[in-house]
Amino acid sequence: MTLTKKIIKKEAPKQGMLQNVMQQFEAAAERMNLNPNIKKILAVTNNELIIHFPVRMDNGEVEIFKGYRVQHNNALGPYKGGLRYHPTIDIDSVKALAMWMTWKTSLAGLPYGGAKGGIEMDPKNYSISELERITRRFTYALGDNIGPEHDIPAPDVNTNAQTMAWIADTYMSTKAPSERSKNQHVVTGKPVGSGGLEGRDRATGFGVFLTIKYWSEYKNIDLNGKSFIVQGFGNVGYWASHFLQEVGAKLVGVQDAFGTIVNPNGLEVESLFNYTTTNDGSILGFPGSEVLDKDLFFELDCDICIPAALGNQITEDRAGKIKAFLIAEGANGPTTVEAEAILKERGIEIIPDILCNSGGVVGSYFEWLQNRNGELWALDEIMVRIDKRIKEVFKKVYETSQIKDLDMRSTAYIIAIERIERAYIQRGIFP
Ligand SMILES: NC(=O)C1=CN([C@@H]2O[C@H](COP(=O)(O)OP(=O)(O)OC[C@H]3O[C@@H](n4cnc5c(N)ncnc54)[C@H](OP(=O)(O)O)[C@@H]3O)[C@@H](O)[C@H]2O)C=CC1
Ligand SMILES: O=C(O)CCC(=O)C(=O)O
């Protein structure tokens, strides 16, 4: 089979995420009557770092890479947020993603601010040893712009536990021997065995599932037998599908960077996952499935739609054709502001990204605590703790949205921003 992944990846939109998050922020600020001075602070990023760094490739040539780290706000604690390796990364998209992290950590009640970063590249074009050297050189170039009590990266698109292990190892090696082990929590999402948390791998997808479960409970909807589609079958998309299938929901369509497959009778999640591991990561050709034109993905007949890939996927033209009654945003920024207005009009509800995918950063917080306190937590205990936190935050957002007669995104923004506003005011900076 010929795999045409790169062509599709190049089509992934990269413009507009910053406008999107800014419009969401402006609308929330106006609605909550945000202190104008605090609004000025939150409308901009604290620090933006762009680094060009050289790496020797396997063939002996040197290639220059462009890396980013944007620190949006740290009023509530150290900067926190993932690292993305992707060809569509640019400064504006990283700024947007950093801003979303600030709202997400605040909403989840964590002692963190927001940041994001990454490298502009397609990791599929590099060998494992090249990826290791690229990651280590990037970490070295970042230097003390990251740190366990200052700015703590984590996995995002095309980065994983291995990437985090290389970062931790490189960062720790720059410290005096007696200080090294105190710096393990410079990143979260590490492999279990190198300071990683049992369950961090599934934490984001688990959180996506939990928010769908709690939403369904409020609506008296039984998830057993409900159909769902997932865009992106990576860390978030796979684990969300895994937990939904466990309660009897049926995966009927999947899209990854290679293309789209469907089966109205259901695609078995574990078999599909195992298939991708033997098929260059691609879902195409999965037995029993049919290939669908990628532009028709969001029009598929289903009850729940889970975007779990890149930003700006649910656009104005797609919003009018969506059949699902619920959109659960596993990805960051998958729905444009214009599309959201159409969905609202059509009565399609959205569990917003800063709530829906917050299980990941909640898991990261537990890993950070585990490292800081020299503890080792068991998987069962961790899953219960993530569930408890997501349940509390979901309840707060959902019930407040009912009282205020607002959608969940606007409500989540107001709760998140109010917490930051309160912190600034308590410090006496802004009367
Ligand atoms: N990892 C985490 O803990 C968290 C992630 N998120 C967000 O979730 C989303 C997914 O992240 P994650 O699962 O970690 O990333 P992964 O790299 O594990 O998976 C990304 C998935 O998206 C697919 N994809 C990439 N480009 C396209 C495209 N143009 N069309 C359709 N599918 C595409 C990839 O396909 P292929 O495999 O073929 O490349 C892959 O299946 C991102 O928006 C991320 O910011 C949010 C919170 C936490
Ligand atoms: O786990 C984390 O620190 C952040 C993960 C992330 O990048 C996100 O939630 O978007």
From TrEMBL:
Alphabetically ordered keywords of this record: NAD, Nucleotide-binding, Oxidoreductase
Gene3D superfamilies: Leucine Dehydrogenase, chain A, domain 1 (3.40.50.10860), NAD(P)-binding Rossmann-like Domain (3.40.50.720)
Classification via Pfam families: ELFV_dehydrog, ELFV_dehydrog_N
Residue span, Glutamate/phenylalanine/leucine/valine/L-tryptophan dehydrogenase C-terminal domain: 197-428
Membrane-spanning parts: none
Statement: the UniProt record of this protein carries the keyword Amino-acid biosynthesis: no
Location of the active site: 116 (proton donor)
GO molecular function, one term: glutamate dehydrogenase (NAD+) activity
Annotated positions binding NAD(+): 204, 235
The UniProt record lists the keyword Oxidoreductase: yes
InterPro entries: Aminoacid_DH-like_N_sf (IPR046346), Glu/Leu/Phe/Val/Trp_DH (IPR006095), Glu/Leu/Phe/Val/Trp_DH_C (IPR006096), Glu/Leu/Phe/Val/Trp_DH_dimer (IPR006097), Glu/Leu/Phe/Val_DH_AS (IPR033524), Glu_DH (IPR014362), NAD(P)-bd_dom_sf (IPR036291), NAD_bind_Glu_DH (IPR033922)
SUPFAM superfamilies (UniProt xref): Aminoacid dehydrogenase-like, N-terminal domain, NAD(P)-binding Rossmann-fold domains
Residues where substrate binds: 80, 104, 364
A GO BP annotation: L-glutamate catabolic process
PANTHER family: GLUTAMATE DEHYDROGENASE (PTHR11606), GLUTAMATE DEHYDROGENASE 1, MITOCHONDRIAL (PTHR11606:SF13)
Family affiliation: Belongs to the Glu/Leu/Phe/Val dehydrogenases family.
Protein name: Glutamate dehydrogenase
Species lineage: Bacteria, Pseudomonadati, Bacteroidota, Flavobacteriia, Flavobacteriales
